[in-house]
Amino acid sequence: MEQFQVKDKTLAAQGRLQIEWASKHMPVLIQIKTRFNKEKPLKGLTLGACLHVTKETAVLVETLAAGGAKIALCGSNPLSTQDDVAAALAEEGINVFAWRGQNTEEYYQCINKVLDFKPMITLDDGADLVGTLHGKRKEGLKNVKGGTEETTTGVIRLRAMERDGSLKYPIIAVNDAYTKYLFDNRYGTGQSTIDGILRATSVLLAGKNFVVCGYGWCSRGIAMRAQGLGAKVIVTEVIPTKALEAAMNGLRVMPIAEAAEIGDIFVTATGDINVIRKEHMQKMKDGAIIANSGHFNVEISLKDLEALSTSKRTIRPNLEEFTLKDGKKLYLLAEGRLVNLAAAEGHPSEVMDMSFANQALCAEYIAKNSRMTPKVYGVPCDIDENVAELKLKAMGVQIDKLTPEQQKYLSTWEMGTT
Ligand SMILES: NC(=O)c1ccc[n+]([C@@H]2O[C@H](COP(=O)([O-])OP(=O)(O)OC[C@H]3O[C@@H](n4cnc5c(N)ncnc54)[C@H](O)[C@@H]3O)[C@@H](O)[C@H]2O)c1
Questions:
Q1: Ligand 1 centroid from CA 217, angstroms
Q2: DSSP secondary structure code for residue 318 in this structure
Q3: Strand 329-333's sheet: what is its strand order?
Q4: What is the maximum alpha-carbon separation in the chain?
Q5: Are 65 and 71 in contact (CB under 8 A)?
Q6: What is the pTM of this model?
Q7: Phi, psi at residue 304, to the nearest 5°?
Q8: 313 and 167 in contact (C-beta within 8 Å)?
Q9: 124 in ligand 1 pocket by Cβ < 6 Å?
């Protein structure tokens, strides 16, 4: 069987340095790797992973390999693979099928290559691997013991599968751990989305009208960081409580149809479809910049943008200029794919340390538990707590312990007003 497919194997030395740099900032995962190396909890298991192939993912893959697993890896987005990292993994003997700039056919070919290895545990980001396994590759389902899912959109898809009875094996929603979404989705996406926008455009954010579509975990982080750089942040939402929270955090909240007229920069992170579409693009100012940080490239209607435009040209990497029929120009970043991974390097290693510690510990949990049934599970509380404890320790942060008196007080009802 073909063992790897990457863009350029000669990039391996540079990729190795990137992985070393990420490892330095991922102390929790490295600690798990050391234990895995001794205990080999994944011995004899083949793992199929569909994840953004970044330097942090490489540290996860090395951790799983240290645990005794055989791994086949493909990218979870056509534009997010770091080719030097993929080359380094290939050189290490990991079965990696990923390169930046895949078309849809190549993207699914790589998923199928991973499935050819007959994985027993799947690690997915967005549920395309799981979707393929439950669709065209059903014959592989019999080998699978369980899986993990990294992101909100993937968990939403899996819950839909569970609801209609089509999910055939247990999957742990890593996204839903506190030590994942509170940090990865919020601070990770917050910082790296700004990073992607700046690398693609190099524009000043201070004083700009910066429209964030959504006020969930990712979009909260994006709004927070844009505000910190002096942008005037406007939020659009569909859920009243989230809109209220944005308003009370001092942000302007309005419908996208209104925001379209005043925004200088637009970022979607909703997990929803066609959030920015024709009628909004028609209202936008000349020079408006549009980006997406949600999982799939469906949040900005690319079909509408193409249909409204008479021409387009690439100004610089990840920055495309669309000229509309009235001469107005709109600028699309990273082809509408998640801008933080396509135009920058994704989340900083420090947050991926926690997300991927959850991934590694959940893979171990699945390996050790044979009683799980086909449904979507939360991350076991002790794993979540353990990741937080290890991270605090690595950061040199100490916290208090409840006294016996406090423990008793917090677990009884008798004592009230004194
Ligand atoms: N770029 C990354 O690296 C990265 C990281 C984590 C998650 N994600 C992805 O980002 C997306 C959002 O994830 P999240 O964890 O923030 O989800 P979330 O559920 O916390 O937030 C999404 C928010 O978008 C709002 N929304 C939905 N439709 C909307 C619309 N039409 N207009 C305005 N608001 C709308 C929802 O009400 C919700 O508040 C998902 O696709 C997720 O998979 C990306």
A1: 7
A2: T
A3: 252-253, 232-236, 209-213, 265-268, 289-292, 329-333, 319-324, 309-316
A4: 75
A5: yes
A6: 0.97
A7: -65, -40
A8: no
A9: no
